[in-house]
Here is the input.
Amino acid sequence: MLSRSAEHLFWAARYLERAEGAARLIEMGQRMTLIPGAGRDEWRSVAAVAGAAHLFDGEERITDASIVEKLVLSPDEPSSIRHCLNRARDNARAVRTGITSEMWEALNDGWRRLEMADPSAALRDLPAILEWVKARASVFRGAADSSMLRTDGYYFLRLGGLIERADLTLRLLDVKYFVLLPETEIVGGGRDHHQWTSVLHATSAARAYHHVYRGDFSPWKITDFLILNPRFPRSVAYCYNELSRYLELLAIAYGERKQCNMLAAQMVSRLADTEMGEIFATGLHEFTTEAIRHNARLSGAIHRAYHF
Here is the structure.
């Protein structure tokens, strides 16, 4: 496969995953702002996870309308849903012959919806818009899984989505712990029930988590589930197990293991050797910060290995 085609597939999946992640974060923000007595600017935490905190520096308190303007409808902000969907579509169009018609239709169906949206109407219809974004991403992934040949093109597509998904989970946990943890709460103590369960909802993990831990919403157990559980599709461990697998398949296809294979294997080994509760006890912020950096190094190594 041409490196240019591999790059387009990688970034089509990554931008689509980023758009869905933004939709999930905004849903989480809405849920947290509705909690009676919420005294914090919860929208600021959403912006921080999305990497867009700088957009709201001049606002004393972020409003729903401002979120819609900058994180949903903006055509230029790299973290906005509209920008990410447009970039996903542009990358897919550039490699149109490398994807199936079902995948293209998933990206192309109603693609101008946000471009045509009026800010006030978008604010009013925000829940429906967010559901539409998540549905587009799910349909695209389903089409890829059911109609795309398992060749190097599929591997690059999966790598992009997994890199972005692991990054979102890590940033979400870091901001929850480092920004939203009440100042008076001892690290590792208490539940802060609503905010921590909002993290589970943002990652569609509430039902799966309940099957593992039932009604115990201890912060350290939620952390373990979203980082170490190898069976949950949005956990860091699951993402890295899959990243390592697809990178090994590429190594077999091209006859050479690269630095990216080593970096993925390092994280897989580290997570497998980590005991339950260890991350929260020794420092969640420190772990997530280093893991985010590792994720960035892995992405850069993939780019260098395959000449993006």
Observations:
- Residues 183-191 have pLDDT under 50 and may be disordered.
- The chain is about 70% helix and 0% strand.
- Residues 41 and 226 are 24 Å apart (CA to CA).
- Residues 1-148 form one domain.
